[in-house]
Amino acid sequence: MLGLLLEHEKPVTRPFLAAASGLSRPTVFAAIQQLEKRGLVRAVGQQSGAPGRSATLYEVPEEAGSLAAVDIGGSNLRVVLTDLRGTLVAEQHQPTARPGGPAIVAQATELLRSTLLSSRLAAIPLHTIAVSVPGVLSHDGRTVSYASNIDQFEPFDFHTPFADAFHVPVVLDNNVNLAAMGERWRGVARELSTFAVVAVGAGIGAGIVHEGRVMRGAHGAAGEVAFLPPFGKRRKVDARAHDEAGGLSLLHDARSRPGWAGEPPTTVEDLFRRAAAGEKPAVALVEEECARIASVVASIGAIIDPEAVVLTGGVGDNDQLIARAAHLTEAMIPFPPSVIRSGLGDRASVIGAVYLAAQSARLELMEGPAG
Amino acid sequence: MLGLLLEHEKPVTRPFLAAASGLSRPTVFAAIQQLEKRGLVRAVGQQSGAPGRSATLYEVPEEAGSLAAVDIGGSNLRVVLTDLRGTLVAEQHQPTARPGGPAIVAQATELLRSTLLSSRLAAIPLHTIAVSVPGVLSHDGRTVSYASNIDQFEPFDFHTPFADAFHVPVVLDNNVNLAAMGERWRGVARELSTFAVVAVGAGIGAGIVHEGRVMRGAHGAAGEVAFLPPFGKRRKVDARAHDEAGGLSLLHDARSRPGWAGEPPTTVEDLFRRAAAGEKPAVALVEEECARIASVVASIGAIIDPEAVVLTGGVGDNDQLIARAAHLTEAMIPFPPSVIRSGLGDRASVIGAVYLAAQSARLELMEGPAG
DNA sequence: CTCCATTTGTTAGGCAACTTGCTTATTGAA
DNA sequence: TTCAATAAGCAAGTTGCCTAACAAATGGAG
What we know:
By secondary structure, chain A is an alpha/beta fold. Helices cover 39% and strands 22% of the residues of chain A. In chain A, helix 2 (14-21) crosses helix 3 (25-37) and helix 8 packs across helix 9. The structure holds a DNA duplex.
């Protein structure tokens, strides 16, 4: 019942909920009464137009509680505040000031606090915080290892600082996994149950969803496509890196090559522009990158056979590259997935974190009467 | 309730069932009464030893119904008959006489009929038939395509012949997927929730299980590891082939190489024996095959990160090869799965089919009262 | 403006599935 | 032989849902 109410943007009527849930009207009416008593639901008007008595409209009001999502990326911190339904109320982002787990977490809690205070949600109880972290989560869901793109090389507890600062439930998950959940919730993977998000930036990493469930793997290393055989040893990789400025190693490669007309490119956009203009080293570099990406996509295709692969990240979020990589993939396997561009771009991970927070909050709220 | 009874080899008491199901004793007692009325459960004695009144033991009797599993392999047909619990009652196998779908299915129904008649289950109602088929299943679960290792190149309906001959529910699934389910149920993957079975025979194919669910993919092509980039175009592959005599292309490769001391090897065993003895072409060929397998295992590892990879098939079911492939895999990815040998060998697919039949029958039986 | 088909809102009663709590029947061991 | 322990069976009570019936409101037809 509560679940159905949370899923709908617009207010809904009780008869509608009865039809949608398969329960009888008396049952639904009783449930709504309970929820109203708990402050989780409120009548917000009448539905009119159709013949017959007009039905009362209900929704989960903003005052019922708020959710926070934090994305700790390699170069940007993002904070999103929403109501319990996941409807955006406030959003802020800023560059990460200093690297290293402790400093970044302090910066993140500070940004979250200030965003919260300056929003209209300040007086409303914060229900859950979801944090998108760059690295492999330990089994207890609190400690993060291999967070190399924030220069945090020791395992570090990202959970406690948030829990201590806000005294609410805190849930963590990996950057790329959350990007996948985000694309599934509000992005281009809305209709898909099995797909992969491949983030190409400083390194390359994939978040894979199988029948609606994120694949994690025995060591939390599912989707570590940087280690796929053909290219596994070729370059120093930052596993799962999802650097938003992105493309660092690609630009590094660029600098070490001869034949540029003038300066080597300093941004990914510049590189692609010069490739489109036919500048030889740019064309070669882009073609190599496309081949590498196509090889990863083909490998995922041969093993998972997903409905689609979503490309994103500083390098991956480029139409030219996506089209070329898709074309190369089609030549490699007989049942290629469709290769599509991210619908959420840089914000996929925070949006995924909002979804995670909403799910987590929902589970707790459903414990109570008339869940 | 019925589920719990079917899962236990030995008879169990009602208080035990109450504890295991979390229900109260009166509820369990009533359910057992219902099931006894339907003939699905029978009292078979008393439990004694402990202080206190002795409890009545119950089990699902053989007369409650039987299950049939058929494995249509490239070189062997296998039939297994069991009771509703999946306990083996009769097993037969014979070489496939003529290739091609129609002939093989006729041979299979005939073998099933004769096995059934000569077993003590002849008078007991057959409940479900599960068929393991070599190829990709269509979406309706009845028609099989790409069954190249039984020389069936057109899509062919494997469902109707069995349904018409026995007038009971028929369920189909792919060879390798069922091998994975078999290993999970009664083989080496009993404790695992995410793992892969890699069958190396005429071709190479994988059955992948993620959190207990078989991965199928958007085109039913999940696990088609023959198409993985480094080797995808190297050899003519029979997708998903799980040839029990196995290793055809490996032996073909052998024949086309120079330097053999005498005749080239004609069996996989011979090849491995001669490699162990240090014969140059054999050593080189085995090493190449191990590298190819390691590359597949590493790719699966990098994408899925399974707890283990089970090797099987005519070529894969060899300790020497498994050890070498495992070693090579460890050098390729930093979080290698354990590589283990099949626990069921050739019989994995039939055993998996028994499991499928048991699951399917269980679902139907649970529809009735006191499921 | 009135009536009416239609749909919402509410109340009453009932049923299925499961409980708890109690009594009775056995059983092994002191 | 008696007793603690456990199983078996019975009698309410609880929960979560349902159907059935009716009262209240509404837009449109006449």
